[in-house]
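YM 10:42: BH2846 protein sequence, as discussed on the call
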Amino acid sequence: MKRFVQFSLISLFIALFAGCQAGEPDIIGDIEESYISWNDERGQLTIFARLLNESSADANNLTARFEFDHPLLKEQISEEGYVVFSSNGEPIPFSVSGDGTYFLSESFDIDWEVPIEELAGDVSVTIFDRYGNEIAHFTIEHAIEE
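YM 10:58: structure's back
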């Protein structure tokens, strides 16, 4: 009986401890709230990307990269993609709280002469952890003109 009580108490503590753990962060792109915007007056293209953390664990030291499929964006912004929040070529890390959201936004001055709708699906977002491992990737499907 004594062993049963000890085993039960140990099992209870393990269950409680495991239940209190937040687990690993789970970052995904919010496809519905992410979009590309073109402002003709300013000649400016802006990328808005919203991230969701579907875990209660904080996600720290993340970096992001925009990648372009459209030839005009590759020509005018970058063939290799654009590291978000780049300062002197180095990415600046950001965090997403547990069960929280984070909003990335970057604007680019470009010469644009085609309908903005052409960009729908031509910009993707990749999120990396502190070790440079890809943890999320999604394509921005919405493009609007302001």
